[in-house]
Amino acid sequence: MRYLLLVSHGTFAPGLHSVMKMLVGERDDILSCSLRDGEGAGQYVSELEETISPITANDEVILLGDLIGGSPLTNALNTLASHGLLPKTRAFGGANVPMALTAAFDLQSEDLDGLCKSIVSEGQNALSEMELDLGGDDDEEEDL
Q1: In terms of Cα–Cα distance, which of 51, 44, 47 is closest to 3?
Q2: Do 123 and 96 contact (CB within 8 A), yes or no?
Q3: CA 57 to centroid of chain Cα atoms
Q4: pLDDT digits (tens, 9 = 90+) for 74-129
Q5: For residue 129, is it within any domain?
Q6: Contacts of 140 (CB under 8 A, 6+ apart)
Q7: Which end of the chain is more exposed for a tag (fewer CB within 10 A), N or C?
Q8: How many whole angstroms separate alpha carbon 1 and alpha carbon 95?
């Protein structure tokens, strides 16, 4: 089985997990853990250990973190390594909803390399500035 593991500072990962539940349903292969404000690395790792307890040596992990080099992602990689899972892990920083959705929809795909390329591509394609037309008639309401 392949798992999607979401990690972050604050409430980003649990919030993203909540969005995944809304859009793809409740799934046992999507897990999340976050480093909360005022929490030490030891407590986070302990919670992460509990979060990843369903993952076995035969499983694979897609790890989405909020920041490359941040404590949640770094500690998640170290924890997965201590369980011998690092060779079966693909990790990404800068997580956003399109990345997580792509991973969730195709999580069990046979083409892991293709899935990983899609995760990055969808994440990058989602980033753009919206052009807002704020001019026009004051009497006329326009949809954004």
Answers
A1: 51
A2: yes
A3: 21
A4: 999 999 999 999 999 999 999 999 999 999 999 999 999 999 999 999 999 999 99
A5: no
A6: none
A7: C
A8: 22
Whether the CA torsion 91, 95, 99, 101 is positive or negative: it is positive
Residue 135: band (very low, low, confident or very high) from pLDDT cuts 50, 70, 90: confident
Range of the domain at 68: 2-108
User: With 90 as the cut, is the pLDDT of residue 136 above it?
Assistant: no
- Whether residue 115 lies inside any domain: the answer is no
The CATH number of residue 64's host domain is 3.40.50.510
Identify whether 24 is part of a domain.
Answer: yes
Q: Are 32 and 51 in contact (CB under 8 A)?
A: yes
Is there a domain that residue 133 lies in?
no
> What is the residue-averaged pLDDT of the chain?
94
Closest CA to 90 of 101, 75, 71, 103: 103
Reported pTM: 0.91
The identity of residue 116, as a single letter, is C
Strand locations in 45-141, DSSP E?
60-65, 89-92
